[in-house]
Design goal:
The structure holds three protein chains of three kinds. Chain A has two domains: 277 residues, ABC transporter involved in vitamin B12 uptake, BtuC (Orthogonal Bundle), CATH 1.10.3470; 211 residues, no CATH class. Chain A is 71% helix and 2% strand. Chain B is α/β, with parallel strands linked by helices. Chain B folds into two domains: 190 residues, Rossmann fold (3-Layer(aba) Sandwich), CATH 3.40.50; 152 residues, Response regulator (Rossmann fold, 3-Layer(aba) Sandwich). Chain B is built from 13 helices and 16 strands. Chain C has a six-stranded mixed beta sheet with strand order 6-7-8-3-9-10, with helices on both faces. In chain C, helix 4 runs parallel beside helix 7 and helix 6 crosses helix 7. Chain C has two domains: 204 residues, Rossmann fold (3-Layer(aba) Sandwich), CATH 3.40.50.300; 77 residues, no CATH class. The chains are: A mainly alpha, B alpha/beta, C alpha/beta. Chains in contact: A-B, A-C.
């Protein structure tokens, strides 16, 4: 039917559009929520999963007709959306802007874990009741479900457009999106608007879950995370908060991925997608379909980091705690406890690093695990392939992580707010995918085996005590350095960037220079942390530092208090310790963890020790 | 529906119970009488009960439950009850190392099973090795898994054995000459890909294309365009069951009708459920097959189905098998950490559902020569493959 | 169109023979269909205080943004101290001695009052920021010197702190007792004072004040007037945006009136105040005679437009 030279490209195009079509379902809801509440809703993927399960109950257990099932999914997820708004957003209105984002992460943990407990973690089939005819196009074909998905995507976008343009509530939604404070002053019930938007977006998200579940004939409790991530990427490409842009962005993302596969191979798919995202963010920071440049309006009240009064620990108490921590192995010989605390010290290095960039400079990084991975691989490969002694390889790995990390994030320096987070998330994914694909250097998916342990004079330091002491001493040194840094002129300069980068520039602060400095210091600390992990673990691969580690690190930082050195350590101890403490609860422990996280954000959004 | 409601209730009750229990410190441990000859023999399990890999941990759990029930019904090991302490690791390295320290320090634990992913399992290996506690990785196929030391053992399928068998099936039995390969891009898939390519070449076939995909991939349409354009006459899958089912569905939709040969890890009732009509005619090899007439297999299958109400799959059968194997070794050599290590080296022809009988190569600490059965999906079920039988996919080709 | 315009400029400039400190020529800035600044020219001599007035949305703040490098003009040029600085980044202009305050106040909320003012002195850090001129070594040296400060760095920090405290003392006991309080805990008026203190810490050659008395009561306004008068007395060159005409009339050497992005009048305060075009554009039908009362601001709508 088509000439062969042209055929494959037509097929890649069709396939790209088909998958983009699926991304669009989620991206539209995310765009709507972001447009109104300026929140990247990480729970959206979980709503999508819940929708799939409600649909599964309707189809396979209750044998409902398909339209009734769709209605049930829409209503159920709409209600869930309203609940998310009530629990995750409204009580945090005056909290730091990052708190609602973290609340949505907590909610997503709770929803995913509940689904896992209710429906078991096994994937389930979700048979479609649609006719099975297919239309051949080029070398492939599209079926009834593809058309239905496209119809739902475009139809819901059209409905949304009508709602926003022609109804009173829609008018209120648009007013709120433009200027929340002003809308409120004009008598718009902002809470009602938010609730409505969450309900609509979630109903749409739930229906998407059902459709995609039927599409792949598979649903599982973890299906939301990856799908949500792709939705976020797609809507960023189109321009956040822009519904038609989200659809265009989704189709574009589908095409980018499909052409990426065509050109480089299947395992380059996400690499291609994330590199494209970074390029778009850097070249068109407001998305491809955004309007012309305009200065951000001057802030009337408040800034990104809400005011807080940090809890200052007295010096003698800190000294006492340090001495107690150092002496602990003499008093307690339980290797399990020491290992857990040793893990906490290692993660505290990560949190320390992140609290500097996310807390002090306000550049909230969602890809910090990438720095661990760079440090770990650098140290492991230096020790194994270059024959450098481990004790030298570790600091060298820190330098490499500092240099490489800063260089990778550099293009994102010109971005602000949530864009920085998404760009760093993409950088984190890129690091993982490069590790996976650059086989000649990193050994690809096989990973690096036989990483030598830390040793002194030929004696390996692998016992429970050393696993505790080494990270603790490194942590104390870096915490001391960071405290010193914060009390120097750099401390106020970096915090000034966080508080108001425009004002900081107006007083001669070169943003690139100081962001670069902060990322270099952070990269060094995290890189050393990753290197230590590599030598303790003896084996690392691309899955050793997955994306959830970045989320965990951010949770630690926010829990402890943004920019707060002691807070970062406390956050790490709490969040490494809690899952161990809840170990008796077996399958329930992550659920408990999610609930505890939500409670902490709800009642102490500025963190346990407060923002510095 | 009812079971969902029941589980909702259990969820709420469970959460409350756990929260109360947390207030009451550690669960009772030293309440049992201190008679050492009656104390249970404990095997530690480190595996994912929550997180991204939870489904595999749940399958393990079903296999362990059945094995424990059977061992303890027949008098336990050396007159003592056998117990499993399953610690959820989420297959997260920082948790597996903590669990390892916990197990190593707990003198009641005589051996360890798991973890699931290589990254998680191998991070803990040095701790087990240094402490002299056997780490028995029954699903760890990483080629270097057992190389950490003499306490690290595995009865996972050795790809160096499995891939030639699979290649044999694809090339010699089904007559493929130009084979396209899709593999999951992790240590297992990557190693298998190389071994399969080599084995296929030795048998006179060519691997015309190899596409590595990421573990959480769901859309294979564009990958399949690449596969199609290599003009293969056979397709091999190095996949787990969920992704294997997905690929098969999409390749049939894309009009690719070549015979499909999949690695044994697709062997699961879920493969049939998720793949639906599309997986009809897919070939696979498995060491374990419920239709196998061997009595131990038949006992296992009927007991498993009676207990859990579903057919066993590859992971639950391996978990069952691993625990029974350790029970056998403990019976022979005694509930002592070092004795178990030595016992594994010498155990001969231990009964095994998965392998028939098992013996280890003491040098590599892996299983010697596992056997396998050729299967094909027929009428929505795995069936023994008969050479020359009408093969739907092949006929269409 | 205007009467009291350019012809009167040279006479009112104190030192007309010297090249102007700031000179702006034909500045244009468009936002979509809206032209915020439309061919504006303006010059400022050393030691002069010029006020820019005009109704909301006249483009005054956009003008400030263009001068200070936060925004770049579509057409036109800006020269500062004889150097063409069009398109220079804000941080570079600050280094040349340009300091500004912001219309709505942009203090660093979680920084103490003292730290806010010290950030103002950032461009004056020498010992801790050795001008190496190398892309990588410079920042690394700064990091090292900050972590292990030699005597020179410590002395510099001490000197700047003392100086900052002195600047803060300009505002009497409005700020001094609150030296270590975070800026977000201050009253609106005090935040404006912190901004001015921060700007003074830069030791500016040109100070741009964007509505320094917004939100202040008459007493506070009078106090601010005295402070600005004092600054002027010390020879500081000031460009002022202000709505309170009384203050403008008392302080300015010259007044520029803007409307729709263009200059509609310029001249001595007294001349501008009676210019009918100004009255028409700025005050509507109200007489200017009332301007010598403190509540002159009441004439001006307080709600600010978004495009300003």
């Amino acid at each position: 039917m088509f000439p062969t030279s042209f055929g494959p490209w037509l097929d890649y195009t069709i396939n790209g559009l088909v998958i983009g079509n699926i991304y669009a379902l989620l991206a539209v809801g995310l765009a709507l929520i972001f447009g109104v509440s300026h929140l990247i809703n990480f729970a959206h993927g979980s709503v999508y999963m819940v929708g799939a399960y409600i649909g599964w109950l309707g189809i396979t257990k209750l044998n409902l007709p398909l339209p009734v099932t769709f209605a049930a999914v829409a209503v159920g997820c709409g209600l869930l959306g309203a609940v998310i708004e009530r629990v995750g957003l409204r009580p945090l209105r005056n909290a730091p802007r990052i708190a609602p984002l973290l609340a949505t992460i907590g909610l997503s943990v709770v929803l995913d874990q509940s689904a896992q407990l209710l429906f078991s973690p096994d994937p389930r089939a979700l048979p479609t009741q649609l006719p099975s005819w297919r239309i051949a196009i080029g070398g492939g074909s599209i079926g009834a479900l593809d058309l239905l998905i496209a119809g739902v995507g475009i139809g819901s976008a059209a409905l949304l457009y009508g709602f926003l343009r022609f109804t009173r509530l829609g008018w209120a939604v648009r007013a709120t999106a433009l200027d929340r404070d002003a809308a409120q002053q004009c008598g718009v019930d902002v809470d009602k608007v938010n609730r409505t938007v969450f309900a609509i977006a979630s109903a749409l998200g739930g229906v998407s879950g059902l459709l995609v579940g039927m599409y792949y004939n598979t649903i599982d409790p973890n299906m939301g995370f990856q799908a949500g991530l792709k939705g976020i990427v797609a809507q960023l490409i189109g321009g956040v908060g822009n519904v038609p842009g989200a659809i265009a962005g989704s189709l574009l993302l589908g095409l980018i991925e499909s052409y990426g596969i065509a050109l480089f191979g299947t395992s380059y798919r996400n690499l291609f997608a994330f590199v494209a995202l970074i390029l778009i963010l850097v070249l068109r920071p407001n998305g491809l379909f955004a309007k012309a440049r305009r200065l951000p309006p001057e802030p009337l009240t408040g800034t990104f980091i809400a005011p807080s009064r940090p809890l200052v620990l007295p010096g003698w108490l800190i000294g006492l705690l340090i001495v107690a921590a150092l002496a602990l192995p003499f008093a307690v010989q339980q290797p399990y406890l020491l290992q857990t605390l040793g893990n906490a010290w290692l993660y505290a290095l990560l949190a320390l690093s992140l609290t500097l960039v996310a807390g002090t400079v306000g550049q909230v990084s969602l890809g910090h695990a990438g720095l661990l991975a760079i440090g770990a691989y650098a140290s492991a490969l230096l020790a194994l392939d270059a024959g450098i002694p481990v004790l030298l390889a570790v600091p060298l790995a820190g330098v490499i992580a500092a240099a490489l990390g800063t260089a990778l994030v550099f293009p994102a320096f010109r971005l602000r707010g949530h864009y920085v987070s998404i760009a760093t998330l993409a950088v984190g994914e890129i690091v993982t995918l490069v590790i996976l694909n650059w086989e000649s250097l990193t050994r690809g998916p096989i990973g690096v085996t036989g990483v030598p342990p830390l040793s002194v004079a030929g004696t390996p330091l692998v016992s429970g005590q050393w696993v505790y002491w080494i990270p603790l001493v490194v942590l104390l040194v870096f915490a001391g350095v960071q405290t010193r840094l914060l009390s120097s002129h750099l401390g106020r300069t970096l915090r000034a960037i966080r508080e108001d980068d425009v004002a900081a520039r107006s007083y001669g602060v070169d943003l690139n220079r100081y962001k670069g400095l902060a990322f270099a210091v952070a990269g060094f600390v995290a890189g050393v942390g990753g290197a230590l992990m590599a030598h303790f673990y003896s084996y690392i691969n691309h899955e050793t530092f997955p994306a959830p580690v970045s989320m965990l690190a951010l949770t630690m930082v926010i829990l402890g208090g943004l920019g707060n050195v002691a807070g970062a350590v406390l956050g790490a101890v709490v969040l490494v310790g809690l899952p161990e403490l809840f170990r008796a609860a077996a399958e329930y422990r992550m659920l408990i963890y999610g609930v505890v996280l939500l409670l902490l954000i709800r009642f102490r959004p500025q963190g346990l020790l407060g923002t510095v | 529906m009812l079971d969902v409601i029941a589980r909702s209730a259990a969820l709420v009750a469970g959460t409350l119970a756990v929260l109360t229990a947390l207030g009451v410190a550690q669960p009772a441990r030293s309440q049992t009488a201190a008679d050492p000859t009656k104390e249970p023999v404990v095997i530690g399990v480190s595996g994912p009960l929550t997180g991204a890999y939870a489904q595999y941990g749940a399958q393990w759990q079903r296999g362990f439950d059945l094995a424990l029930e059977q061992v303890n019904a027949s008098g336990g090991v050396q007159g003592r009850p056998l117990r499993v302490q399953f610690e959820d690791s989420q297959s997260d390295p920082k948790q597996t190392v903590a669990i390892a320290r916990k197990f190593v320090a707990d003198s009641r634990i005589v051996a360890e099973l798991g973890d699931f992913t290589s990254a998680a399992s191998m991070a803990a290996s040095p701790i087990y090795q240094n402490a002299g506690l056997v780490q028995f990785g029954f699903t760890n196929s990483h080629p270097d898994f057992t190389k950490t030391g003499d306490f690290i053992w595995s009865n996972a399928l050795n790809q160096a054995e499995e891939m030639p068998v699979l290649a044999d099936y694809a090339v010699s039995a089904l007559g493929g000459k130009r084979i396209a390969l899709l593999f999951i891009n992790n240590d297992w898939g990557r190693t298998s890909k190389d071994l399969f390519t080599k084995a296929a070449k030795e048998r006179g076939a060519e691997v015309v294309g190899a596409e590595g995909y990421l573990a959480d991939e769901k859309d294979f349409r564009s990958a399949l365009v690449r596969v199609r354009d290599t003009k293969p006459d056979g397709i091999a899958l190095i996949s787990y069951y969920a992704d294997g089912a997905q690929i098969t569905r999409q390749l049939r939709e894309a009009g690719l009708s070549q015979p499909v040969v999949a690695a044994g890890s697709v062997y699961s009732p879920k493969f049939l459920e998720l793949g639906g009509a599309a997986v009809e005619g897919v070939h696979t090899t498995t060491p374990f097959f419920p239709g196998d007439p061997r009595p131990e297999v038949q006992t296992f299958v009927s007991a498993y189905t009676a207990k859990h109400g579903i057919d066993p799959d590859a992971y639950s059968s391996r978990a069952y098998d691993a625990l029974l194997l350790l029970a056998t070794v403990i019976r022979q050599s005694g509930p002592d950490r070092k004795a178990i290590r030595d016992g594994l080296a010498t155990v001969k022809d231990a009964p095994s559902v998965v392998y028939g009988t098992v013996r280890f190569d003491p040098q590599t600490r892996r299983v010697d020569k596992p056997f396998s059965t050729r299967l094909v999906v027929k009428n929505g079920a795995f069936a023994l493959w008969q050479p020359g039988s009408t093969d739907a996919a092949k006929a269409a080709n | 169109m205007t009467t009291a315009s350019t012809t009167s400029t040279p006479t009112s400039t104190p030192s007309a023979s010297v090249a102007p400190l700031l000179s702006i020529a034909g500045l244009v800035r468009r936002f979509g269909g809206l032209t915020a600044v439309n061919g504006l020219s303006l010059s400022l001599a050393d030691g002069e205080l010029v006020s820019v007035i005009g109704p909301n949305g006249a483009g005054k703040t956009t003008l400030f943004n263009l001068i200070t490098g936060l925004d770049t003009p579509d057409v036109g040029s800006v020269a500062f101290a004889g150097q063409d600085v069009t398109g220079f980044a804000a941080e570079r202009l600050a280094g040349l001695g340009l300091a500004r305050t912001f219309q709505h106040g942009r203090v660093f909320g979680n920084l103490s009052v003292l730290d806010n003012v010290l950030v103002g002195a950032h461009t004056r850090l020498r010992a801790v920021r050795p001008p190496l001129g190398l892309p990588l070594l410079g920042p690394l040296a700064e990091l090292g010197l900050a972590l292990l400060p030699p005597a020179a760095v410590r002395a510099e920090e001490e000197r700047l702190r003392a100086e900052a405290t002195e600047i803060i003392a300009l505002f009497g006991d409005r700020l001094t007792p609150r030296l270590d309080k975070p800026a977000h805990s201050l009253s609106y008026a005090n935040r404006r004072r912190v901004e001015i203190a921060r700007a003074l810490a830069l030791k500016p050659r040109l100070l741009l004040l964007d509505e320094p008395t917004a939100g202040m009561n008459p007493t506070e306004t009078a106090e601010m007037l005295e402070i600005i008068r004092g600054l002027k007395g010390r020879g500081l060159t000031i460009l002022l945006i202000e709505h309170k005409l009384d203050l403008v009339m008392q302080l300015s050497d010259r007044v520029v009136v803007m409307d729709h992005g263009a200059r509609i009048a310029e001249g001595l305060p007294s001349a501008v105040a009676t210019d009918p075009a100004v009255i028409e554009a700025y005050l509507g039908h109200k007489a200017v005679g009332a301007a010598n009362q403190d509540d002159a601001a009441a004439v001006v709508p307080t709600k600010r437009g978004i495009g300003e």
